[in-house]
Design goal:
Three copies of one chain form a homotrimer.
Chain A (H helix, E strand, L loop, with lengths): L4 H11 L9 H4 L1 H11 L5 E5 L8 E7 L2 E7 L5 E5 L14 E3 L3 E2 L6 E2 L24 E7 L2 E5 L8 H11 L7 E11 L3 H9 L4 H4 L1 H6 L5 H18 L6 E3 L11 E7 L27 E7 L3 E5 L4 E10 L2 E11 L10 H26 L15 H12 L1
Antiparallel strand pairs in A: 1-9, 2-3, 2-5, 3-4, 4-8, 6-7, 8-9, 10-16, 11-12, 12-13, 13-14, 14-15, 15-16
Chain lengths: 399, 399, 399
């Protein structure tokens, strides 16, 4: 009996060797890609932005991934809401502009009109039996953590509350609530989204591939993380950064898709933040009394990652566009009252992760090219790639 | 057991909810698209042109859709014939130029030579057992209605005769036989052909989407069609347009694929044709004594549509190029003896359906984008979209 | 029960009519294409270059086809070796530059380092149980015939030795060992690789399609091959070209994929080589005492073809890039001590097969367009296309 591509996928999941990379099929099958969107992306929390982007009533922006589009809007009651950007009539995109201020959403095809809360207002020529109450925009779940907005298209989104409750006191001094977007950039990579995410999940490649990052960040060498860790802890105490770590990932996750990770590691002596010369890039965030010279790896859910310096936050997501097309999207945040030119220089602020992302585009592309070989056999993962099996575990649990 | 894409399609057909739009699968599956070509397009009548384009012996032109190509030619006996543009040897395109005058068709690969009637002339080095009579170009059925040429690749083309016989007296005064092509244009749309066709089939979207059309055409509002219908009938009588309507579509169709539809509706006061200022665009067609200020929606088969004004005819077809690539092809016809510059201005003539097609490109594109969502659920159709279920009925009966 | 595309392929193989072309499915199915790569290309010998390209230790070049990439390198022991260009860790391309000189191969992702012979040197952070001996680059088989390098990704490559042993004395006087590359060119064709190869395999199309070739080469007409064959044999004897022919193809092949073919045919009077004016293009190859005015069709395996004139050799391969994208790659060789400008003019040398390949690009493209029709029915092959069924036989025996 012929096996379809999803059956091949399930057989490979059963045969998956612990501590090894995934087989080719996961990165080359169109059916697997579509399943990734419908069962993994549509059922996980996705970081889409920050409350400052929907500060006033009617402010909205779109977030697109794969064939999906989500409207994020502040409604008339002041709530941040999210809706599927698909008309309930014949499926047109309802909202076309990437961001703006709206009084309501009028479908450009047949003018079905939806309130900011998604409710359908009328149904022109729909007959007397038509009940507009049945045809509001499909709601998308929203979770806001200290100003960061996450959405999930599924009704039964992974339960994040318990994990975020434990995270809250650790990130509190950084005052994420009052960040502002300093810059956004997108790096298109001709590779499957999982290869882009796996690249982010490990620093085994940092030393050979990222010279600039490795000059300042100890994570490229576990021994050096230890070596400079004590001094970092001392400075963390001085400036007001909590010392705790949190690892609710892999086997420790409270539920599938509800991973949270927070761990701060030292920059090398001479670097107080992720800058080229080691000097500060912006005023300390939130309540911090200064620069501690640390960087926190923060993960929320399985798709959303942040690097938290003392003076800025960099957010990362790996947005699928097609089977082998992915956008690495990066957002740089500084404290909300910082002014460009006076308090920070945008080019200096974004330098490190701009050059590092150009490196990554290259190595992820070469990774996909090799994985495409019919003769590729996945090899063993190193000790420094420990978080990749955690991702696989999550991925397998939901697809 | 895995289901292939066509089985998924058949299950969806069984579950299709009356009066609702079609599910995503019909617009996103490559297998469904290929089936559309092989079972629907290849078995339906397609309007390809007008006899004036093959006026003399040897005149030919090509019509292409999906992966198919048809040669339409006037042969030595004076008959309009159509052949599959595929060599019977190893399958090369036989005819490469889009139009011209030929004495015969010589395959550019191995020089197999076919007469204008499709007969293979010789078979160089084919051995003594070879019978050229077995290897003529595959014939394509031809139906000519008052000068309009239709082709069908299937041997058992839908029987159009009876329906066309009933149509003939209604269109006769417009003298389609003596039309000439004033202009042709193609509007590429990144959407499945069915979304482009469905867009044409309903005027529910006219008011919100087509400001220019809606300024002059009452079809955008059924109440106004009624309001101005009486006066139109009076003028139709005066200029010589028959008053009858004909609706052999949907359940009234005489056979699957044999739909014919003819219904004239009023333009708004001040408009005698589909012009920007309401003034005539060209001399009245055929035997008409003047401009009645009406517009006839004419459909022949399930794929071919025309809008018949008193002074010009606009033909529309929605030609598949790929799963989500379609060309909206439009041809403007005026009476055969009209001269550009003297009797009509091409820019004025084509203005309305040029701007309207630009609108349509945009809304059909947004429709496809939304339909691509894994979460799209087809909604209920309005009363003004009554002809879409008729199309679905036809479509389901043949795929 | 639904049939998958490979099952459809197998059914078509069972139903294949002897002496007829292949059905559409073999040229339009993505599954068939992927199977072509994994079961035919990866298990056949592919001509990739000449030993002069890896003259010194560490010299390497890449050969890519479909999603595959092979490194060909001269190792420290002086052996020509080939490796799969895929890291044994997570599958990155190991070697990025198309050619160069290397001391070792360092994967650009995580710096796994391989010796020129493919052995993995170290395994940074791989734990104490890690055995680098298990993770060398996958070896690719290498066969060198008189300086021409062939590779095969399969462990059980077709046994070529016996056939090449019989070929050796026939080609020996041309001294392939000491050729040098005069020029390389690639002609992209939007067609399946099999259509490009089939085009090369027959000269039925030469007369109608290749005017320049047909002006000088008798192969376009079997009768003329005979007519001028006697005089050619006489001149072959004079300049030192062996008179024997060798046809180990089709039913005569010693093993599937082990075909060898060598047959010399006359140019027309006035032509001593494949030049525009008939005059010599370069000094006679190897031990030849002059120009005999012949051209040898040489085939080695099922994928590699050469045309051997008295003063240069032209090599051809038809490299798959995607289902309907193929590169016709051509290499012109002259004797190793010939100097451009003094001994040969590159434009004159490459003229014939440049213009002929432009012809071929066009006719193969039109062939694919027609074969894409759902209504294409494969026709009978002519007597001059006798070698195409031989290719099908080989193809069917391995897929």
């Amino acid at each position: 009996m012929p096996k379809d591509d999803l059956q091949v996928m399930r057989d490979l999941m059963d045969a998956q060797r612990k501590g090894f990379a995934l087989p080719r099929h996961f990165y080359t099958s169109q059916a697997v890609y579509e399943n990734d969107i419908s069962t993994f992306w549509n059922r996980n929390w996705i970081w889409v932005g920050h409350v400052s982007q929907v500060a006033e009533l009617g402010d909205y922006f779109l977030f697109d991934y794969g064939p999906e589009s989500i409207i994020i809007v502040r409604d008339r009651e002041g709530e941040v809401r999210a809706h599927l950007n698909v008309c309930r009539h014949r499926g047109s995109r309802v909202c076309i502009e990437q961001k703006g201020k709206a009084r309501n959403f009028i479908c450009p095809y047949h003018a079905w009109t939806f309130d900011l809360n998604g409710k359908l207002r009328n149904g022109r020529s729909m007959g007397s039996d038509f009940d507009p109450g049945q045809y509001g925009l499909f709601p998308v779940q929203v979770q806001i953590f200290q100003g960061l907005i996450f959405v999930c298209a599924a009704e039964d989104a992974p339960p994040l509350d318990a994990a975020l409750e434990r995270l809250a006191p650790l990130s509190k001094p950084f005052d994420f609530e009052n960040l502002k977007v300093a810059h956004e950039a997108s790096y298109p990579v001709p590779a499957n989204w999982k290869l882009a995410l796996e690249n982010y999940l490990e620093c085994y490649h940092c030393a050979p591939s990222h010279q600039d990052y490795s000059r300042s960040h100890s994570l490229k060498d576990p021994a050096q993380v230890l070596e400079f860790g004590g001094a970092l802890h001392e400075r963390m105490g001085e400036v007001g950064v909590p010392l705790e770590e949190l690892d609710l990932t892999g086997e420790n996750a409270l539920a599938p898709g509800a991973d949270v990770y927070w761990r701060r590691y030292p920059l090398f002596p001479g670097y107080v933040t992720g800058s080229k010369d080691g000097a500060p890039l912006a005023p300390p965030l939130g309540e911090l009394k200064g620069h501690d010279g640390g960087a926190t790896d923060l993960g929320i859910g399985t798709l959303n990652y942040f690097l938290v310096y003392a003076d800025h936050v960099v957010g990362y997501r790996f947005v699928p566009r097609a089977l082998q097309e992915t956008d690495i999207q990066i957002v740089w945040y500084v404290r909300g009252d910082a002014q460009e030119g006076r308090d920070y220089d945008k080019d200096a602020l974004t330098w490190l992760w701009h050059v590092t992302s150009l490196d990554d585009e290259r190595i992820i592309r070469h990774n996909q090219e090799g994985v495409n070989s019919h003769q590729f056999v996945p090899g063993p993962l190193s000790e420094m790639e420990w978080s990749i099996p955690g991702f696989y575990r999550n991925y397998f649990s939901m697809i």
